[in-house]
TrEMBL record:
Its EC number is 2.7.13.3. The lineage of its organism: Bacteria, Pseudomonadati, Pseudomonadota, Alphaproteobacteria, Sphingomonadales. The keyword Cell membrane does not apply. CDD domains: HisKA. Residues 169-188, 199-227 are annotated as: Disordered. It is an enzyme of class 2 (transferase). InterPro entries: HisK_dim/P_dom, HisK_dim/P_sf. This is histidine kinase. Keywords: Kinase, Transferase. Residues 329-397 form the Signal transduction histidine kinase dimerisation/phosphoacceptor domain. It comes from the Bacteria.
Amino acid sequence: MHFDDRLATVLRLRATGERAANTQFRQLIDLLGERPQAGDPALKAAAYLRLIALGEMIPVKVRAALVGESGWRFRNPELVKWFGGAHPHIAAAALYRAQLTGPEWAALIPKLPIRARGFLRHRRDLPQEAVKILDRLGVSDRALPQPEPFELIDELIPPDDVELAPAEPEITEQTEQKSGQSPGKEDVRSLVERIEGFRRARQEQRESEPDAQSPRLPMGDEDRHDDSELDHFLFGADYQGRIDWAEGNIAPMVVGIDLAGLGSTAVAQALSRRQPLHNTRITLRGAKRIEGEWIVDATPRFTRAEGRFYGYVGRFRRVMPEVADTRGAEADRLRQLLHELRTPVNAMQGYAEIIQQQVIGPVPHEYRAIAATIAGDSAHILAGFDELDRLARLETGALDLEAGQCDFAEIARRQVMQLQTVLSPRVARFDASLGEVRAPLGLAQSEAEILAWRLLATLAGATSAGEAIRLDLDTAGDQIEFAATLPATLREAEDIFSVETRPAMGALSAGIFGAGFSLRLARAEARVAGGDLMRDGERLVLSLPLLTGAEAVPAPESAAG
């Protein structure tokens, strides 16, 4: 029970700062890295959950440095497997420090992600059992093999039945002196002329035997008609949706096609609202090379001086039969994985709640506290699983937002007031210029509130002390543009949709995966709603289509709010 006592002691403490988090992270991996032995499974599960929680507080680079510190010897296959699925930097550091037996490696390596197996290939101290299983799985070094010298010489030697150009006469010392050239230069010249003679002979053979199939060097053959399968091409369309430009030799096949007249509701709707086309499926008829199913991505074009809409520019990409539903299949696999992960997490949460609530009998307060922590961490993890599932379904078109009517301006004003109370203690604020206008959307009230809160709470959580974030709402056109200046922590990122920035305050959370993931999820929700979320310099702009005319009658829930 010595192992359990130490683990319970570590878990009893709460990491309230960066230094405490780093210390507790070291303690946990030190205890869990020992050889597997008997102990309370609930405590071990709580330890892994605490590592996940600490991972949200400690940056990836710091965690990788902690794991890679000299002195660690991870002898527990369970911990090594857990690290193998972590960030690549962390996984590489852990697998470098892992010290397992041959049978343990043989049992563990097939369970590791493919990326983690590649890290092991660079180790030279693995047992023979590990090396054999890596070879069997096809894991090899990533360096390309050195090419064999003169591997094309055989291709340059003509067959016996082909007559070559006359060879140069034998070079003697007298001819060398007369010509003033060395034997090396003459040899190169002779080789060039031999190749030229070989090329002429092959050209004559092709002309005399058009159906002959033989390999040939690409030395100036005339261009032939391109009958290869077309998998993508760029295009431009006018304000009516009619293609007026396409790249290369594709233009004669597609110019004049009316995209709006192909029967696609998505194209007609986007054209009328001047919105981008994203993953829009279209069927083309005509020349053999363009017939079939296509996916269209296009951006509207506007004149610089007047801002007048004058068409689209974008790309067609072929829907390949064998990979037409690749993203959907990947999303299905992700959802299956999440379902499998939810089962043990739900079990841990339920078991922890039973202990915390003393359902089956009295429990010491310290164990109740640990159980409450496990239950909270489990709920946090399950919320992250839900967000992953929602993003996968949104990006593959398997989920649509609930339709309805709401006033986005009123939702934004109300949520900004709520967030101001959280920002005020840090002398930070939203400088909101939202006015009193209405912004009717064709979304259910709950969907619009989730989207607005995900965006505003993420920005507020990334806001530093004393920082002001300006918000502007423009409803002048046929869509709203809700713009916010980026906080300094997000402004420095090259891609704000992939940053791992964590909230600067505990009252707000950008989710288990950080601000970048939350913004990517908000972008997916906006695109499904017919809009978009994109970065414009130092601003983040959310665009959504407005309801117009009779459609813009206030919904009952909006009016009540």
